[in-house]
Amino acid sequence: MSDESLIPIxxxxxxxxxALVQATATEAALAAMFPDLPLERVIIKTTxxxxxxxxxxxxxxxxxxxxxxxxxxxxxxxxxxxxxDIAVHSLKDLPTVLEPRFALAAVLERAPVRDVLVTRxxxxxxxxxxxxxxxxxxxxxxxxVEMLRPDLKVVDLRGNVPTRLMKLASGEHHDAIxxxxxxxxxxxxxxxLATGDESEAIVGMPxxxxxxxxxxxxxxxxxQGAVGLEIRAGDARSRVIAxxxxxxxxxxxxxxxxxxxxxxxxxxxTPVGVFSSLADGELHLQARVFPEAGGAPKSGEARGxxxxxxxxxxxxxxx
Length: 319
Fold this sequence. Notes:
Elements: E1 9-13, H1 17-33, E2 39-43, H2 47-50, H3 56-63, H4 73-81, E3 86-90, E4 102-107, E5 115-119, E6 133-135, H5 139-148, E7 153-155, H6 161-170, E8 176-180, H7 181-186, E9 200-202, E10 205-212, E11 227-232, H8 236-243, H9 248-264, E12 272-279, E13 282-289, E14 298-304, H10 307-318
Helix pairs in contact: 9-10
């Protein structure tokens, strides 16, 4: 055994329940690949976790940091000072373009990508009563609700997944909320596969019901459902270790989605829905882009085998 193999790898993660589940999955994959490799978890509180007093869209502005830094800034500081070697992120929180000293080394196998409408009565987005209050912190979700149901009221919603579910259950401020299917599945609130097209009771909270929204109708975020492993760009050891547990199909798909965002120069508060599928080696990329100033979105799709080329074709078709 080499001396290097005895040096621990420090895994950095946020402290939310979902982040810890994702860190656990990363550690389990690494332990299976490198049984003798010491792993140490480092839990880090980020700006987005700390600032719950303002809407998510305003956190970066209030803190004077760039668009997508609210959930990664402190993790990257820990990479910088060597406190951690691999940062585990929900990929949709990671900037499309990283600073040169950092690199996205790999992604884990993707969970389901859809958004989910959660209500107290199993109502669908189409049948929510006019004026119903729909909670979300995502501009992308808000704009799509406004497009599909302009008679609904979108209200801000902060907190981790369990907190958001409890806020809905209380009935005080929300009639429905929107969450990512991946988080609900990873936390055990929903099974990985839907039993049909109807609402499903939330596991452990039978007073709440979830309806998985068709991604062709309600477009997900780029990278939704994927877990990204970020490293220092020059750290060859961490790169090899992270790449060993990467999932090739997920990497291909999220590369196309993130490249499309890069071409748009879009951040996490830009209202863009984009998702991909892969069949028989062909990538299918679809997007819905809302103008910053408001108005009807542009939609398009592209196909091909090279993720960067497919993203370029889609981008050019919308500009």
